[in-house]
Design brief:
The complex is a heterodimer of chains A (365) and B (267).
Chain A: H1 12-36, H2 39-64, H3 72-94, H4 101-106, H5 122-146, H6 151-171, H7 173-176, E1 187-188, E2 191-192, H8 196-222, H9 224-234, H10 236-241, H11 246-272, H12 282-295, H13 300-320, H14 324-339, H15 347-357
Antiparallel strand pairs in A: 1-2
Helix pairs in contact in A: 1-8, 2-8, 2-11, 2-12, 2-13, 3-5, 3-11, 5-11, 8-9, 8-11, 9-11, 12-13, 12-14
Chain B: E1 6-15, E2 18-28, E3 33-37, H1 44-51, E4 58-63, E5 66-67, H2 73-78, E6 81-83, H3 96-103, H4 110-114, H5 122-131, H6 146-159, E7 164-168, H7 176-189, E8 194-198, H8 202-208, E9 211-216, E10 219-224, H9 226-231, H10 233-241, H11 258-266
Parallel strand pairs in B: 3-8, 3-9, 6-7, 7-8
Antiparallel strand pairs in B: 1-2, 1-4, 4-5, 9-10
Helix pairs in contact in B: 3-6, 5-6, 8-11
The chains are: A mainly alpha (365), B alpha/beta (267).
């Protein structure tokens, strides 16, 4: 006999809640949105969904793991550049050139740099969009977590890395396109991105990836690993005395989140047609976590909806009030982290607690 | 009694020139229920910190065949050594069952870790019975009463299947009834495990200790049964010579009846 007591099965309505929400999300993203939105709006939504994919990872690493991942731009950028390098090479090959357009303009020689060459292979490039960010995260995380760097120090380190990568990219104009980044991408694995039908196809790929990653993250959240991750977040020392190495537990969440950010960056390139240092530096790295913070970083749905809402607000408001957005963004972040750590997802619980506390003083749950 | 004993030789811990533990020798036999007592600053907690790898120390600490000094905390824990802290540290946002399940799982493989826990594993269910928290198993640990948190911590050590439990003031702040329940729990636990308890409460110590070590200024002042230690002139000097030490026992004293009996059993 392996078990003495069984957890009584939850009522059907509760068991269907999560799959039901998932189906609803799928219907909205794959059915309603493409029907209701114009090509232009749908391509904007595709971009927001890329940020939402980053937020799935942020929710895991920060929400559940307590790792303030303020440098996700690095992984987003690595994924994005890996994808863009392949697409630029494919574009060049399609017109019979050996070098991407910007290299012909700024390049010193006519040979392709050695580290560009493998990216001509689509399989290699696709694998790198995920594996490269994960490898960098694994290496960095290994040293950082073993040395027990935590909290604000970890956040600052992440920010510094995001700054370093974008500065390095700017300095390498001949091989990375410098400040401009890799732009003017024409095709996506043989499909022209000028064709609105193909743009819609890219949207569907992004929406499907988001749904799949949310399902995977949800499984991680409810698994034993997910419980352990929360335990590490709340009392790392105690976990150590139970015989676990908390560094490894954190490393898994960090690496998975990096892989998700990398994939998001890779999908961002065909959706928007550009990847540049300005999209992966310090400010965008903070931007990646604000959505999750506002929506509720510990709640998967909260983080994803928050990321979409903040991205939407950014493109709407920064058109109407250019310059004011940055301040508003900062304010949102401070308000969410300082006054509503659970984000909007926790608003219901917070209000309910208020309401029960006010009438019956002293009779708190 | 089966299992491993703890052997400490010439243990020294120094913080910036201050010697907190100054050449301690200890022999704790398997199945012992040893109390470590002594005035504040005697080095009791630091001793436990050194054994569990939390602070650096010199000398030698052996548990069975294993050398402990220099090993990282989680590896020492995996050798079967568990501890609690003066302030109960449980995972407040997780339920009682989740707390215990995590404690039981240090050896789990990747596939088990990535799956959801479907039911309550047998060791967890047994520990719930032992610590008397079966009914509260699905409550978040954060809402438990202070005493219940301490029991949960002891339960976590049980499912962790440690051979040696090091408990730092487990009954501090407990009511009379809770103290008694804890004492009985420790007695049951020590039937097939070795238990070391740091305690300030002399009545509790008299009621449940099988053997006692008195620490003073980082050294072992006296060692033996409760009666032997109480009769030791050096101990009396340390405790009685300084009028206000030890700290007054918190709350009413438990029934001191079984003290002599338990010492007799051991002898």
């Amino acid at each position: 006999m392996t078990t003495i007591t069984e957890t009584p099965p939850a009522p059907l309505s509760a068991r269907l809640r999560v799959p039901g929400a998932f189906v609803l999300g799928a219907v909205l993203l794959l059915g309603a949105a493409p029907l209701a939105l114009s090509d232009f709006r749908l391509s904007l939504l595709a971009k927001y969904l890329c940020y939402a994919i980053v937020a799935v990872g942020v929710s895991l690493a920060w929400g559940r793991g307590g790792l303030m991942v303020l440098g996700q731009g690095v992984f987003f950028g690595l994924g994005g550049y890996a994808m863009a390098m392949h697409l630029k090479l494919a574009d060049a090959a399609a017109t019979g050139e050996t070098l991407p357009d910007f290299m012909q303009l700024y390049g010193t020689g006519d040979a392709l740099p050695w580290w560009w060459k493998p990216f001509a292979n689509p399989g290699f490039a696709l694998a790198m969009t995920v594996l490269l960010p994960m490898a960098v995260a694994a290496l960095l995380g290994f040293f950082v977590f073993q040395r027990r760097v935590k909290g604000a120090y970890f956040a600052i380190l992440s920010q510094a890395l995001a700054a370093a990568l974008s500065v390095w990219l700017v300095g390498q104009q001949a091989t990375t396109g410098g400040t401009n980044g890799l732009t003017d991408i024409q095709g996506f694995f043989g499909y022209s991105l000028d064709d609105p039908v193909n743009q819609r196809m890219v949207y569907f790929v992004i929406a499907a990836v988001l749904l799949l990653l949310m399902a995977a993250a949800r499984q991680l959240f409810v698994s034993r690993y997910g419980e352990l991750l929360v335990a590490v977040r709340d009392s790392e020392e105690r976990v150590r005395f139970l015989g676990y190495n908390p560094a490894n537990v954190k490393l898994v969440a960090y690496v998975v989140a990096a892989g998700m950010a990398g994939l998001a960056g890779a999908l961002f390139v065909p959706a928007v047609g550009i990847i540049s240092p300005a999209l992966i530096g310090i400010v965008p790295s903070i931007g990646f976590v604000i959505g999750a913070a506002v929506g509720g970083r510990a709640s998967l749905v909260g983080a994803v909806l928050g990321a979409i809402a903040v991205a939407w607000a950014q493109s709407t408001l920064s058109d109407a009030f250019p310059g004011a957005w940055t301040y508003l963004q900062g304010l949102l972040f401070v308000l969410a982290v300082g006054f509503l750590p659970g984000g909007l997802a926790s608003l219901g619980i917070v209000l309910r607690r208020r309401r029960t506390r006010t009438p019956a003083t002293g009779e708190t749950a | 009694m089966s299992g491993e004993g703890l052997t400490v030789r010439d243990l020294r811990v120094t913080f910036d020139g201050f010697t907190a533990v100054d050449g301690v020798d200890l022999d704790i036999r398997p199945g012992d229920l040893r109390f470590l007592i002594g005035p504040n600053g005697a080095g009791k907690t630091t001793l436990v910190d050194a054994v569990t790898g939390l602070v650096k120390a010199t000398g030698s600490v052996r548990f069975g065949e294993q050398d402990l000094l220099g090993k990282p905390v989680h590896k020492i824990a995996r050798l079967g050594i568990g501890r609690t802290f003066q302030t109960a540290t449980v995972f407040e946002e997780l339920t009682v069952v989740q707390n215990l399940d995590i404690a039981a799982g240090a050896g789990r493989g990747v596939r088990t870790m990535l799956r959801r826990r479907k039911d309550v594993p047998e060791p967890v269910a047994r520990a719930l019975e032992t610590i008397g928290l079966s009914r509260l198993r699905d409550r978040p640990a954060g809402v438990l009463a202070h005493g219940q948190k301490q029991w949960l911590e002891i339960g976590m050590l049980l499912v962790q299947d440690v051979r040696l439990l090091l408990l730092d003031e487990p009954v501090a702040g407990m009511s009379h009834d809770e103290r008694e329940a804890t004492g009985e729990l420790l007695r049951r636990v020590s039937e097939d495990r070795t238990v070391v308890v740091i305690e300030h409460d002399m009545d509790f110590m008299r009621a449940y200790a099988r053997s006692v070590s008195v620490l003073h200024a980082g050294k072992v002042l006296s060692e033996g049964s409760v009666a032997e230690v109480q009769a030791d002139a050096k101990v009396q000097e340390v405790y009685l010579g300084r009028a206000c030490e030890p700290e007054p026992a918190l709350g009413p004293a438990p029934t001191p009846a079984p003290a002599a009996a338990s010492v007799a059993e051991e002898a």
